[in-house]
Amino acid sequence: xxxxxxxxxxxxxxxxxxxxxxxxxxxxxxxxxxxxxxxxxxxxxxxxxxxxxxxxxxxxxxxxxxxxxxxxxxxxxxxxxxxxxxxxxxxxxxxxxxxxxxxxxxxxxxxxxxxxxxxxxxxxxxxxxxxxxxxxxxxxxxxxxxxxxxxxxxxxxxxxxxxxxxxxxxxxxxxxxxxxxxxxxxxxxxxxxxxxxxxxxxxxxxxxxxxxxxxxxxxxxxxxxxxxxxxxxxxxxxxxxxxxxxxxxxxxxxxxxxxxxxxxxxxxxxxxx
Length: 273
Prior knowledge:
By secondary structure, this protein is of the alpha+beta class. It has helices at residues 2-41, 57-66, 126-135, 199-208, 259-262; strands at 47-48, 70-77, 87-91, 97-98, 103-109, 115-117, 139-146, 151-159, 162-163, 169-171, 175-182, 188-190, 212-218, 231-236, 242-244, 248-254. The strands form 6 sheets. It has a 4-stranded mixed beta sheet with strand order 7-11-8-9, covered by helices on one side. A 3-stranded mixed beta sheet has the order 2-5-3, covered by helices on one side. A 3-stranded mixed beta sheet has the order 13-16-14. Strand 8 (151-159) and strand 9 (162-163) form a beta hairpin. The chain is rod-shaped, with a radius of gyration of 41 Å.
């Protein structure tokens, strides 16, 4: 009987020891798992997201990498308020707390200005032209007044020294000069002789007399290669005609110099004043 009791006690002790060992093993395993998860997720380790708006992409990559963060461009836009190619939005926002290795998603401003088409502005009022150009993002840098039949209408559009035709492709933000009519005056002037002059020379000659170019006709349509060779062979009104300041002088042009001699409106050239 005593032996049986000893056997039972021994058996129970063995079971208890094994149970205790199993519990310890489970606890060790759970502890290891928790430590592993903590290390894997870096629980409690946070990074402060820097403000990378207004930075260029390559610069932002360096800044984020130094904080253990990554970057990804998810979209692009165009903003006149930010330099081209810079970051305009970020997510997470600046100063947010994130885990190490987190990706910061950004929207980048376009690297080029938006292309726009110059509308037809000839004979459009100054106010309407300014509104149209402002809507397209074009900048009226200056306004020059020249003689014309009507007041405050657009005669020409220039970019620097170049005249622009309707349909010209420009970039948003381009600076333009508007040539605006000042209207007819009350004083009479004598129409100068512009036979034999190029279009640019005729325009300058007429402006000096407070007159403007009217209709322009070519006997043969010019090309980009020979347009500078055309000269005036006919003008209306004729040289010497008294007209009001701001009046238009209609001209015809040709590369045939003989027409400047045989033309119906051959005039003696006046001295430029």
